[in-house]
Amino acid sequence: MKKRNLFFGAIFLLILTFIAEVAHFTTEVKNELWINSIRTITESTHQGANALNMQFEMDFDTLHLLWEQISTSDTPETMSTLYKGVEPDIVLYRKNTKNRGGMTEVDQNVNTFLDKNDIEQGILDSHICTVTGDSVFNIFVKGTLADGTTAYLVKEYFTKEIAEQFTLSFYDNIGFSYLINQNGVIMVRPRHKNGNKTIYNIFDMISKNENDAQEIHAFRQSIQNLETSWAKFNSDGQGLVFCYEPLKVDSTWLLVSIVPENVITAQAKSVVRKTIVFSVISLLTILCVIAIFHGFKMQERQIHTQELTAALNIADSANRAKGRFLMDMSHDIRTPLNAIIGMVSIAQDNISDQSKLKDCLEKINSSSTHLLSLISDILDMSQIEKGKIILKEEAISLPQLFEQTVEVMQPIAQEAHLNLEMRPIQLENNTIIGDSLRIRQILLNIIRNAVKYTQPGGHITLELTQAEHYQGLATYRFRCIDTGIGMNQEFMERIFLPFERERNTTDSKVAGMGVGLTITKKLLDLMGGTISVESELQKGSIFTIEFHFMYQDSNFPIVQVEEEPDYSNRRVLLVEDNELNMEILEELLGITNIHIEKAYDGQQAVSMVTSQPPHYYNLIFMDIQMPVMDGYEAARQLRNMDRDDLHVIPIVAVSANALASDVENALIAGMNGHIPKPVDLDELIGTLQQYL
C-alpha cells in the first residue's frame, strides 16, 4: 500500500510537473507568437513604405528631369504638352497667373495650395480633383521658367490606384494598411470590401473610455513626430494593433497597418489547444508541431519578402525604361528641330541663291515631316493604350491602297540607295471593308522599318497575296523581305514592346522612338490580324502580316483627282485667330483662285455669315481653340439658326487638336469633317473637291 501510494504520488507529481512545463511552454509560445506577429506586421509595413518611397523618389527624379528640359524652353507649355504623351498625369502650373496650366485644365485645389505656399517640393494631401471629380493627391517640384515666372511641375495620383498597388492586407483581409498624414487623417484607404470605409481619422478608432489618456496622447505625439513604432488600444471591447512608419520623401505621411488583436492571438490559442491535445502523447510531438509551424511562418515571410522585392525590381525596371525613353525622345526630337532651325538660318544667309534656298526648303520639309511622324507615334501610342482608337469601316481597293503606299516609299528608298521591288499582286477579291488610314499606317511602318535597317545597296521585296476566302471573309497576307542588318533571337522576343530598339539612335544612326512596330502590333490586334518576324543577323528579316477583312464582289471605283483645280467662282471663309496660320491657309488656298474672306474668332465668323445673304459662302474652314468664342460653339450656333443654307453649308475643322476624340467632338458640334494641323496641301485640295 505504501509503495502504491508512493507510485501514485510520483505519478501525480509527474503529472503536475508535466502540466507546469506545458503551461510554461504554452505561455512562452504565446509570447513568441505575439512578438513574431508584431515583427511580421512591422516588417511588412516597412516594406510597403519602402516601396512607396522608391516610387515617389523615382517620380520626383522624373519631375526634375522634365524641369531641366522645360525650364530652358521658350515654349514651356508646348514642351509640357509634348511630354504628356509619355507622362499624362504631369501638368505645368504657373504660380499666381491666370494661365496656370497652359492648354490643360487644372485642379483648382492644387492651384490654391501652390499659390498659398512656397515649398520647393513635396506631397499635397488627398482631395477631390475639380477636373475629374476623383479622389487624388499630388507631388510637386518648384522651378523657374526662362521668362522668370515661378512654376511647378505637378504629378497626379489616383488614390484608388495607389490603394491597389501599395496598401497591404493581413490575416485573410481582416487587417489592412492605410496612408495617413501626421494628424491621423486617412489619405489613402484599402479598396477591399472588409476595409473600414467610414473612419476619417485613425484616432477615431481609439475609445477614450477604454484606454489610458496618457497612452493615447503619447501615440498621437509619436504619429505627429513621424516616428516608427507600434501600439495597442481597445475599441468597443476589441484590441487593435497599430504598426506605423513614416514616408521619407518630403512628406508628412505615414503608412499605418491596423490589425485586430484577436486575429493575432487566435494563432497562439490554436497552438495551445494542439499542445494540450498532443501533450499526453509526447512532448516531442508538440515541439515538432511548433517547429513546423515556425518554419512555415518563416517560409511565408520569406516568400512575401521575395514577392515585394520582385515587384520593386519590376517597378525599377519600368522607370529605367521611362528614363531611357525620355533621353531618346529628347535626342530624336531635337535632331529634326536642329535641322529645321539650321536650314532656316542658312536659307536666310543665302536668300538670293535659288539653288541653295531650294535645297534648304527641301531639307526643312523633310525634317518637319519626320518630326511630325515622331509626335504622331507618341500620340498614337497614348490613344491605343487608353483604348480610344476607333476603326472605320469603308470600302477600299486593297491593290490601289498597296500601290499608293509603295509609291510613297519609293523616293525614300531611292534616297537611301535601296532597291524597293513590288512583286505582282495576287488577289481574288480586291475590294475590302476596313480602315484605309490604319491599314496604310501598318504597311508604311513595316516598309519604313525595313528601309531604316537595310544598308545602301540592299534589296527590299514586297508581296501582297490572298490566302483564302469563305462566306464574305478573306485572309490577305503581306510580306516584307529585306537584306538588312537582321536581329538576334533575344531581341526578336521583345521587338513589339514599346520604346525598344536593338541599338540606340546614336550607335545605329537610326532615328525613331521605337514605337512603330508596337503601334503596328496593337492596330493588328484591334483588327484581329497577326504579325510575325523571321530574322538572322547580317542576312536580313522577313515580316509577315495577315489581315482578315470582309470583301465585296464589285469592283472598287477609282476616283480621278483634278490636278489643277480652279474655284474662282466660289467663296470660302477662313476662321483662325493665329496670324501665321491664317497666312499659311491663305497662301495654300490661293493656288485654287478661290475667293477668301477672314474671321479671327468664332463670334466674328457667326456675325459675318449671318450678315450676308444665303449661300454667300460655299465653305467654312473653322479653327477650334480661339478667343471670345471657340470653333465648336460657332458651328453649333450656325447650325441652330433659322436659315436653310446654314443647315447644309460645309464646315470643316482645321485644328491642332488631332486625336480621335477631337474629330468626334467636331462632328458632334455639327461640322462635316476635320483637317489636322500641320495642314497637308493634298488633303486641303481634296476637301475642296469633296464639298465644292
Question: How many separate helices?
Answer: 19
Which range best describes the helical content: under 10%, 10-25%, 25-40%, 40-55%, 55-70% or over 70%? 40-55%
How would you describe the shape? elongated
Q: How does the major sheet shape up?
A: 7 strands, mixed
Describe this structure in words.
By secondary structure, the protein is α+β, with helices and mostly antiparallel strands. The protein is 48% helix and 21% strand. Strands 11, 12, 13, 14, 15, 16 and 17 form a 7-stranded mixed β-sheet that branches. Strands 5, 6, 7, 8, 9 and 10 form a 6-stranded antiparallel β-sheet that branches. A 5-stranded parallel β-sheet has the order 19-18-20-21-22, with helices on both faces. It is elongated, with a radius of gyration of 35 Å. The chain starts with a helix and ends with a helix.
Describe the secondary-structure layout:
Elements: H1 2-70, H2 76-83, E1 90-94, H3 108-116, E2 121-128, E3 135-144, E4 150-158, H4 159-166, E5 169-170, E6 175-181, E7 186-188, H5 213-224, E8 229-235, E9 238-246, E10 253-260, H6 261-279, H7 283-349, H8 354-385, E11 394-397, H9 398-415, E12 419-422, E13 431-434, H10 436-452, E14 459-470, E15 473-482, H11 489-492, H12 505-508, H13 516-527, E16 530-536, E17 540-552, E18 571-575, H14 579-590, E19 595-599, H15 602-611, E20 619-622, H16 631-639, H17 644-648, E21 651-655, H18 660-668, E22 673-676, H19 681-691
Parallel strand pairs: 12-14, 18-19, 18-20, 20-21, 21-22
Antiparallel strand pairs: 1-4, 2-3, 3-4, 5-6, 6-7, 6-10, 8-9, 9-10, 11-13, 13-17, 14-15, 15-17, 16-17
Helix pairs in contact: 1-6, 1-7, 6-7, 7-8, 8-13, 9-10, 10-13, 15-16
